[in-house]
């Protein structure tokens, strides 16, 4: 159980980082387009 919880924590952490990166890229695209 401990190993499974650690694996799930690592997976959720990676998903969280991926979501943050996607949100940042989506937020930066309109800014770059409007600045031009």
Report what the structure shows.
- This protein is mainly α.
- It has one domain (1-36).
- It has one helix at 2-35.
How is the secondary structure organized here?
Blueprint: H1 2-35
Write a concise keyword list for the protein shown above.
mainly alpha; 36 residues
**Helix-strand category:** mainly alpha
Low-pLDDT residue intervals, each spanning 5 or more residues: none
Strand content: under 5%
What does the average pLDDT come to?
84
Number of strands: 0
Terminal residue distance = 53 Å
Helix share, percent: over 70%
How many DSSP helices?
Answer: 1
What number of structural domains do the residues give? 1
Major sheet characteristics: none
Q: Give Rg in angstroms.
A: 16 Å
Shape: rod-shaped
H/E element order:
H
In short, what is this structure?
With 36 residues, the protein is mainly α. The chain has one helix at residues 2-35.
């Amino acid at each position: 159980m401990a190993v499974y919880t650690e694996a799930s924590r690592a997976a959720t952490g990676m998903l969280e980082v991926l979501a943050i990166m996607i949100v940042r890229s989506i937020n930066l695209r309109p800014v770059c387009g409007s600045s031009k």
